Amino acid sequence: MQQPVISVKHLYKAYRTSAGDFPVLKDVNLQVLRGDYVAIMGPSGSGKSTFMNILGCLDMPTAGSYVLDGYAVATMPADQVAKVRNQTIGFVFQGFNLLARASLLDNVALPLVYAGVSKEERHARARVLLEKVGLNKHMHSHPNQISGGQQQRVAIARALVNQPRLILADEPTGNLDSTTSEEIMAIFDCLNQEGITIVLVTHETDIAEHAKRQVRFLDGKIVQDTGASASSAENANV
Amino acid sequence: MFSAMLGEAWHAMGANRLRTFLTMLGMVIGVSAVVLMMAIGQGAEASVKRSISAMGSHLFVVLSGPPRMGGARTATGNAPSLNVRDANAMSELYGVVGVAPVTMGKGQIVYASNNWNTDIIGTTPEYMDIRGWRLSAGYPFSSSDTRSATRVALLGKTVVQNLFGEDADIDAVGKTIRINQRPFVVLGVLESKGQTLDGRDQDDTIIVPLTTAQRKLFGNQLPGTVRQIMVQAESDSVMGMVEEALNSLLNQRHNIREGADSDFSVRNLTAIANSAAETARTMSLLLGAIASVSLLVGGIGIMNIMLVSVTERTREIGIRMAIGARERDILLQFLLEAIMISIVGCLIGILIGVSGAILVSVFTQAEVIISSASVLIAFSVAASIGVFFGFYPARKAARLNPIEALRYQ
Q1: What letters, b where the CB count within 10 A reaches 16 and e where it falls short, cover A95-107?
Q2: A167: nearest Cα among A218, A92, A99
Q3: Could you read off the pLDDT of B153-168 as tens digits, one per residue?
Q4: Quick check: helix, strand or coil at residue B62?
Q5: What interface predicted TM-score (ipTM) does this complex get?
Q6: Beta carbons within 8 Å of A11's beta carbon, 6+ residues apart
Q7: Is B153 helix (H, G, I), strand (E, B) or coil?
């Protein structure tokens, strides 16, 4: 019996504004099993980005529970949440978000700094991953010297460097042309085949089709979940 | 992990060199000012202190006069009212460790074709101990010389230079010179004491036995009388008591009634010197205080730039948080940058301050003292300024909301 990597139950999120509370997520339930490959879709304003931030432990839900890999993140102290972000989750952003001043090698090795890994090991592990994404020749280049697709590959290498259970990708192909997007998605497909759980946000249907399961958000609710039956079956057992 | 952060702080400093340099400049100026001012202040203090110790410590000088000549008062020390027996009585007082009666005059000294006019001090062998005066060559005279009024003399450095030439201390010993036409054997040469606080050359002097001076050089109206008596107390704490005892002893010996004018005066030399030292110390404190203001300004400069840097790097902070940096990692990162700027600035400042102090001493001949304490103080103050002024921006960075930070353009 598999433990779900992500288990979200009755999740609510509201933003406090001067005009009163503004609800963004209303009673969201989602289970993601190990090895799953989920695409979250929906128009802008549907709450998918907020949901992603909560999944990434960057934001906390107003109500409901979120259990990530067995940790009830919502009740954990900030330092432990940082540790979860560091060791359980790998982030890939739309805007790549590499450090402009650091070399590709240092960019990839950065999460290991916060994991307290020695310099030799950091660089060794970063090198292996740069090789995996095919950028080992540019190791000492800086992000502004390589193309967007290459930058995203570096970002993926960075997300993988701490061997996370879960990759969260927020519109990973949003800034890329279609050819490059396919290349990046090929990497994600490959990673998923290796057994890594992937959750990605996208609004492009052809990108979403790479995933095994599509979840559609509208107005702060999940309106469609192609893997819902499997998930609810799990629900019954939990 | 700490070394990785140090490396990053170093890189961040290098990222905008001009800005880092200008920020550092505040620190550099502040620290170099503190080091330089403290060096000059401590130098002044030390030279005052040396003048004091050259005079001798815990000293009183008892001067004769003003004598009463009917209603008119003549100048202090004109007609000696003190005598050697007063000195002997003083040495019996509790807390007094040395007494030296002194009579003074001028004399023309001749050796070979050279001649010189200088002060002549007639005193007892205790004088040397009281003034803490040692010989650079030869021997001091003894109490038997005082008893038998032998014609021996101890020459000050300036006198030796004028009669025998430079570095002739050893040559001078044993030679016969003439003081006011009378032959004297040079028994020893006095160590150099330099100038007094008022610029008088203390080495321009000759010391002879008291009796010799009285009987064979100056003559004397009243045998045994002296112009002044130097008295050394045991320690600072008994100075007050000794002063009172000296007054009451002399009043009693000179039959002076209570309320009447005394024919002597007791002066505390150390008190005068101490106040000079106090002035020097106050000056050096004042200089240090003014210099520290510039340190403060430098610290504010660091805080300002760190705040700008935090704003500029908001996105970077967001990225770092997303990939697992804890609040304290971010705090440490920015704090380290601030500390590094201030410490590097401080090191440069120390370098400039020290070389400035050396330049000052070379060009103005003023004494400067670069103590490791002043350098250490400047260094630790600079480091604490880095922590103090770096903390607020660093905390601001650490408290950023990661989502907003990631969205920041």
Answers
A1: bbbbbebbbbbbb
A2: A92
A3: 999 989 998 888 887 7
A4: strand
A5: 0.90
A6: A25, A27, A28, A29, A51, A54, A61, A63, A64, A65, A66
A7: strand
Residue where the block lists tokens 């991953």 = A129
Please provide the DSSP assignment of B26-52 as one string: HHHHHHHHHHHHHHHHHHHHHHHHHHH
| Contact yes or no for A114 and B323 at CB 8 A | yes
DSSP letters, chain A, are: -PPPSEEEEEEEEEEEETTEEEEEEEEEEEEE-TT-EEEEE--TTSSHHHHHHHHTTSS--SEEEEEETTEEGGGS-HHHHHHHHHHTEEEE-TT----TTS-HHHHHHHHHHHTT--HHHHHHHHHHHHHHTT-GGGTTS-GGGS-HHHHHHHHHHHHHTT--SEEEEESTTTTS-HHHHHHHHHHHHHHHHTT-EEEEE-S-HHHHTTSSEEEEEETTEEEEETTHHHHHHHHHH-
Task: Test A82 with B327 for CB contact under 8 angstroms.
Answer: yes
* pTM to 2 decimal places: 0.70
**Residue in the block written with tokens 């967001």:** B318
Pairing of strands A37-41, A197-201: parallel
Question: CA-to-CA distance for B232 and B55, rounded, in angstroms?
Answer: 11
The single residue listed with the structure tokens 């010391």 is B207
Is the CB of B406 less than 8 angstroms away from the CB of A116? no
pLDDT given for residue B205 in this prediction: 92
Long-range contacts of A130-133 (CB under 8 A, 24+ apart): A130/A104, A130/A105, A130/A154, A130/A157, A132/A157, A132/A160, A133/A157, A133/A187
Rounded distance between C-alpha atoms, residue B109 and residue B99, angstroms: 28
Report, in angstroms and rounded to the nearest whole number, the Rg of chain B calculated over CA atoms: 33
Q: Is some CB atom of chain A closer than 8 A to the CB atom of B6?
A: no
Taking the mean position of all CA atoms in its chain, how far away is CA B263?
A: 35
| Sequence-separated (6 or more) residues with CB below 8 Å from residue B4 | A113, A119, A122
- Chain A residue with minimal CA distance to B401? A58
* Whole-number Å distance between alpha carbons of B50 and B203: 15
How far lies B353's CA from each of B107, B294, B297, B371, in Å? Answer: 49, 14, 17, 12
Cα separations in angstroms, A19 against A12, A15, A22, A23, A63: 18, 10, 8, 12, 20
pLDDT mean over B61-81: 64
User: Which of these, A92, A108, A97, A94, lies nearest to A140 by C-alpha position?
Assistant: A108
* Residue from B323, B403, B408 to probe the interface with A (highest A Cβ count within 10 Å): B323
Strands (E), B72-113: 72-73, 82-83, 96-111
What SS3 state is found at B14? helix
Is residue A182 less than 8 Å (CB to CB) from chain B?
A: no
Rg of chain A on CA atoms, in Å: 18
Q: Binning pLDDT at 50, 70 and 90, where does residue A234 land? A: very low
- C-alpha B56/C-alpha B60 separation (Å) is 10
pLDDT digits (tens, 9 = 90+) for A147-198: 989 999 999 999 999 899 899 999 899 888 989 999 999 999 999 999 899 9
Q: Do B326 and A114 touch (CB under 8 A)?
A: yes
Query: Which residues from A are below 8 Å from B315, CB to CB?
Result: 97
Interface contacts A/B by beta carbons within 8 Å: 66
Interface test with B, best of A97, A156, A166, A171 (most B CBs within 10 A): A97
C-alpha B308/C-alpha B27 separation (Å) is 18
